[in-house]
Backbone:
């Protein structure tokens, strides 16, 4: 009998955030070990609950959510999204420019399937959220990774981006605030990235899912506000992180800029939206209430707020470990510390993370899983309560000390 194998389209597709390391964690759990999972930004797992008003609105609309909706999403949700961006200066965005999806993840895949031809090149940051690289590859394209500079607080290296543009380059991915580094790009940096796209005729894909999670004096700037009417910009965001409803799968993409030059692409995106019938209908009913209601995330990200204090605690503790350095996160939910690979004897960061997991029962993600260029980083999710987070980082420090002594 012939062996049944996976499609060749998956040959170069990776998503290590849920890859072999998680499989090892499941094996340990099956043996009776308790594993602290600091690899996924799943807020509900750490006691972050959705605002009551959002839950109540979904419950209220359940009787009306049993059938399909418009393939682009229910009208009230798309209207709320359009009005949100209008209030941020994108006055030309209308209801028909909004597509609702089962989270941003689905929409990234749909957009790239509608946009990318075989061999097309898409500029993606390194490090990146690996779904971008995987989705470009699955669509038949080539993800070309441009460097973000750790010495400059993980801001993109504009010269490196420029050097990697070819006649096959069609798009530029911006992840701001950035996952995994926690960088929040300055206004000038966002302007420069959009201007680079303008000069080279590129489409901008702006992943802004963490836009409301910024700390201290950091300010998030929508790339689309600088794109004008000559740079097509697709802005991705949603409710998962700021409103603590990852499981509701409520995300959106907004199309702005010269839409008259993108009618074929938009038709393709509409076709793919039709093929999936519609996004999850109950979850869509959260969008209007979330965007128009009290923004409880503001309390969590201010000094004294739970997210703020946990991220800052993790950052401070990691920097106290000999052989570890970490750029201060300005947003998002993560720390992306650098390891002295010579001091700790690391030449394979995936193996290091598995060894750490077996020794400490703490699950983190390796840096090359985010398409970073060297095996010298890992990503830690800063979502546990302070006591649990402190204990976890102390255990990581003890493990690193044991490697140092060896």
Residues:
């Amino acid at each position: 009998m012939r062996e049944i194998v996976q499609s060749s389209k998956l040959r170069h597709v990776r998503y290590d955030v849920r890859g072999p390391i998680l499989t090892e964690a499941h094996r340990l759990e099956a043996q009776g070990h308790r594993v602290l999972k600091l690899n996924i930004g799943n807020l509900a797992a750490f006691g972050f609950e959705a605002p009551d008003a959002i839950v109540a609105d979904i419950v209220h609309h359940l009787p009306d959510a049993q059938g399909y909706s418009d393939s682009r999403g229910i009208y009230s949700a798309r209207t709320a999204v359009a009005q949100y961006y209008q209030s941020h200066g994108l006055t030309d965005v209308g209801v028909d420019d909004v597509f609702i999806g089962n989270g941003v993840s689905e929409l990234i895949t749909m957009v790239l399937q509608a946009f990318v031809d075989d061999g097309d090149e898409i500029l993606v940051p390194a490090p990146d959220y690996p779904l971008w690289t995987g989705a470009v590859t699955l669509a038949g394209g080539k993800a070309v990774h441009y460097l973000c500079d750790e010495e400059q607080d993980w801001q993109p290296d504009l010269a490196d981006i420029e050097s990697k543009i070819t006649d096959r380059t069609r798009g530029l991915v911006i992840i701001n605030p950035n996952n995994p580094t926690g960088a929040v790009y300055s206004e000038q940096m966002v302007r420069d990235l959009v201007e680079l796209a303008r000069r080279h005729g590129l489409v901008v894909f702006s992943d802004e899912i963490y836009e409301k999670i910024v700390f201290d004096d950091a300010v998030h700037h929508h790339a689309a506000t600088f794109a004008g009417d000559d740079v097509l910009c697709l802005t991705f965001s949603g409710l998962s992180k700021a409103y603590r409803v990852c499981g509701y799968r409520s995300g959106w993409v907004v199309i702005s800029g010269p839409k008259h030059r993108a009618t074929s692409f938009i038709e393709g995106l509409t076709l793919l939206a039709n093929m999936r019938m519609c996004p999850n209908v109950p979850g869509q009913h959260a969008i209007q209430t979330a965007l128009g209601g009290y923004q409880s995330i503001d309390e969590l990200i201010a000094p004294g707020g739970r997210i703020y204090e946990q991220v800052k605690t993790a950052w401070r503790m990691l920097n106290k470990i000999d052989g570890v350095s970490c750029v201060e996160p300005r947003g998002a939910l993560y720390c992306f510390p650098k390891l002295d690979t010579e001091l700790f004897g690391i030449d394979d960061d995936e193996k290091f993370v598995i060894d750490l997991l077996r020794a400490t029962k703490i699950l983190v993600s390796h840096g090359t899983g985010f398409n970073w260029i060297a095996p010298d980083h890992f990503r830690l999710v800063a979502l546990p309560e302070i006591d649990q987070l402190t204990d976890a980082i102390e255990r990581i420090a003890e493990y690193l000390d044991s490697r140092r002594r060896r």
